[in-house]
Each structure stands twice: as C-alpha cells, then as structure tokens.
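quick one
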Amino acid sequence: MKIAMLASEGAPYAKSGGLGDVMEALPAALSRIPGNEVCLILPYYKKIKENPKYETELAAEFQVTLGWRQQYAGLMRLKNRQDGVRVYFLDNDYYFGARPGAIYGDGDDDERFAYFSKACLDAMAVMGFIPDVIQCNDWQTALVPTYLKSIYRPLFPQTKCMFTIHNIEYQGWSNANFFDDVLRLPWEYRPCLDMNGSVNVMKGAIETCDLVTTVSETYARELMYPYYAHGLDGIIAGASWKLTGITNGIDVHTFNPETDPALPAHYNADTIAQGKALCKQALQKELGLPVRADVPLLVMVTRLAGHKGLDLLCYIARSLLSQEDLQIAILGTGEVQYESFFRGLQAEFPEKMAAKITFDLGLAARMYAGGDIYMMPSRSEPCGLSQMNAMHYGTVPVVHATGGLKDTVPGVDDDGCNGLGYSFQSYNADDFYGALDRCLGLYRENPEAFRALQIRDMRQDFSWNVPAAKYMELFRSMCQK
Ligand code: GLC
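structure w/ alpha-D-glucopyranose:
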C-alpha cells in the first residue's frame, strides 16, 4: 500500500512533543510491513536545514497558490534515512527556512501551515506519488482532506484520507477573511470550515476526511463530551460513525534501558535489581539529592502546562515533602507560575526536592530509569507517551485515569498483583495523594510485590507493532469503500 504521512513535526528532525515521537516511530513501523511504501513529508525548518547530519537533494521545485499568493516550494529528499521511509522536507524560507523561532508560535502560523498542507498535495502530484492513503495529523495538516476533496480530487481520484487528532485543544482558528484571502476554497466549503463565524480548520478536517482517529480508545469516547472537546463535541458526535481510537506505542528501539546511551548502567527485566539501583544512585547524585537506596524517588518529566495536572501536584507537594520520607524530581519547562513554584520548593526542601527547569532528553531518560514512581496526573491526556517510557524502564506510574493513561495503566490490585500502576478517577488533589499513598505503601511494605510490578511494567509490549497493524486495518477498510 502507498501511504503518505503529513505532519508539522517528526523526530529526530523536529519535535516539540508527542506528535514528533509518533511521526518518528509510526512511519517506520508501517514501512516494516511488507508491501508498504511510506513517504513522510515535513516542513524544512531552519534547524533541519542547518543540520549537517541531514543530507538532502532537490527532488522538485514548484509554485504553490495560496489565494493571491504564489509561493515557492522546494521538495528536498533526505538521502540518509536507512529504514525505508522516504522522507521529504518542504523548503520555503519565508514560511520555514529563515524563521529563527521554534516550530510554532508565529502570528501567521495559520498561513504557514495552510501553505504546508497545500504544498504537500502539490508535491505528491509533481512527484507522481499518488498514495492509496494520506494520513495527516492535528490542525497543522487539517486542510489536507478539505483541499483533497474540493480541489485536488482529479489528481488523486482514489486517494483516501485519515485525519488523526493528537490533541483537540489546538484547532487552527482564523478570522473569516482567511477563507478567501488565503485558502480560496470553493464557497460551498465555507460552512464546513465555519465555527461561530470564524474559520476552524480542524472542524473542516473532521467533516471532510474519510476516517478520524485519535490516539487512544478512551480519548475517542471522551471527545464526545464538552469537557474534553474544546467546543467540537457536537462535530465529533456527528462524525462518531467514522471515529476510532488507536493507542500509540513507543519507540522501543530508541527507548530501551538495555542500550540507551544516556544511562549510566543498562538493564532488562531480569537484571533490573542491579541496573536500576545504579541508575537511581547516579540520578540522585546528578540531581544533588542525598544518595539513598531505600527512599522512594518520585519523578515527573513534563511540559509545565496546566493540563498536565500540575495544580494537583502543587496542592499536595508541601504535605508530601514535609510528611513523607521521599524524594521528588521534576524535569521540564513551561508556565512561569509552575517553574517558580517548583524552584521555590527545591529551596525549601533541598534534601528532598529537585527541580530541573530545562529541556534535556538525556536527563529525561535517566529519570525514567532512576526513578521508582512516575507521576502523571494530567487533567486530560489524549494518549501520553511518558507513562509508557517510564514503565518500559521499570518505573511505576501513578496517573489520572483519563484518555490514554486509562488505557495503558490498568490498576494494581490491593495485594499488588495484576495491573501496571495506580490511578485515580476524579480529578482532585486528595485522590491523587491517595493513589500515591497506595503506591508508596506497596513500595515500603511489600518490596517483592513492588519489584514484581516493575518487572510486569518492563515486560509489557508497548511497541508500535500492534498499533501499526490497527492503522493498516483502517487503511484497508477505507480503501475498500
Ligand atoms: C499529544 C498529546 C499526547 C499524545 C501525543 C502523541 O502531544 O497531548 O497525549 O501522546 O500527542 O499522540
């Protein structure tokens, strides 16, 4: 099957979050399936363009029409990708190549990604790559199904389009003028992109694509409710006949405690006792915490954003630190109030609290490996990858039972058997404390059961093989229609 995957980020080239991880591992997993030809197109951001590791050659040049604008596009083929995925970067200095900033956050992001979405379709047409299926992701590539259906159908007569929602919070809003000025779609598409008089490109994608998927089964159900859907619940409900949830995997080749170059010691489920102890010791040293094997080390690697459940942690952190014999380590950057709160806690409890307000992938891996307990109390979580990373490194997750957290962390029994971690149902700080308390109870009172739980976590299959097979099933079902 010919599959085109379009996204605004993909590791290792450009990544700001989980979407980048998915766009690294999913194309690779799909291209391992015999008979598949997988092509991935990403914007040629400045940091990719300037990175000498990525050798490219010019595959095509063409013009993209965006309203009254004619914009250059260079299609750069990556020469040194080994795993069979054909990677292309779309080169345009005005929108991507000469922008110094991060991936997102410019005032004209709507125009930048409208350009990218349209240019991807043009690029495939120019290359003569007419895929059976296009898989596109989040608002940045949400215009693809709408353009496909409205303007590009003659060039792609049979091509089906899947739209995957990684996070419904960001929908790609623009003012009404954008429709004519930039998109210049046929007028009959105005209602499908319209939301309260403005343009909402995610809404358009949900309506025009052949299938909508999201990144866990529970999140697919949650999206029917206003609490989770950020205004799109009605639209999602109307499209429920074509909505499916497929829980993400993690890249078990990159995230592997047996080989991860960031770790001071390596281990697997059989050698966890020695390996993890060494990692914990080294981590405590690195974080400036007292080196103690017996004290539980609670870790969290996260963007410091409200929906990650930080308000719950802030609420209980002082009592946890003053009442319990434990250590807490947080790694991440984000909203200023959280950054300063955790810095303040570290100053107040230097023996127990470490706040690393930075972005550091190596330290992240060492925290997954060196921690005992991983905290992830997200208010909502489409899938979440770090709870899986943590489990894969033998660190027991304590999570809010929402979205992908609910699907990937089945609860442990009272006696510590079965299940993979601890969770709490309703989003409040006391219940989070309760779940942590149960986990700490097992750690302290039943170390054998805690160890068995860690081993269960490590042996769980979080690879992309199962989700990739599910994507294939949906691709086939789309093509049969
Ligand atoms: C987004 C979601 C996260 C998910 C990731 C990859 O970042 O917030 O829950 O794991 O996308 O699908």
